[in-house]
Amino acid sequence: MKKAALIFILLFLLVYIVPLGLRQLVQPDETRYAEIAREMVASGDYVTPHLNGLRYFEKPVFGYWLYAGSMKLFGENAFALRLPCALMAGLSGLCLFLLMRRYGGGSLLGFMAAGVFLTMPFVFIVGTIGILDSILSMLLTGALCLFYCALMEQAFNFRKIVCLLGCGVLCGFAFMTKGFL
């Protein structure tokens, strides 16, 4: 099983992570999010997003924080902008793997669920461009997985409380990513 996990991770890196910086940013969304994150890093103001010097409150700030953090680590480029989205797609696949491994019949079905999810064309497209949808999707997927884990607990115990608290935290970050949906 360790060999299968290693192959799965290597395929994810090869398909999702490696090609992130190979194409130009897509107008208008990626360039807008890139500029907002770039201005956050340049100004040091991580509270108020700005676009071309003007306050920009179309979306809440969490996604911009992820983009700005990635830009601080990897520079102002397409790879840095798209990396949080690709990682979030991978984390969504991991959530599905863990959920299926625990409640769906084992690791093989977990790998299959994650593999099917990550090879869906829409998931791949959204996971490799710098828009907020992949981040929101991962946060909601994680919240639903934690809620399901809490639901499956028979007694009211520490594990159920932690799952419900985690669900609430992820829902809060989802709100901080896209606002009211």
Distance, first to last CA:
39 Å
Low-confidence stretches: none
State the shape.
Answer: globular
What's the Cα radius of gyration? 18 Å
Largest sheet: 2 strands, antiparallel
- Biggest sheet: strands side by side, in what order? 1-2
The assigned structural class equals: mainly alpha
Number of helices: 8
Strand-and-helix sequence, N→C? HHEEHHHHHH
Helix content: over 70%
Beta strands, count: 2
Beta percentage is under 5%
Arithmetic mean pLDDT: 94
In short:
This protein is mainly α and 181 residues long.
Strand-helix topology:
Layout: H1 2-17, H2 29-43, E1 50-51, E2 54-55, H3 62-74, H4 78-103, H5 107-118, H6 121-127, H7 133-152, H8 158-178
Antiparallel strand pairs: 1-2
Helix pairs in contact: 2-3, 3-4, 4-5, 4-6, 4-7, 7-8
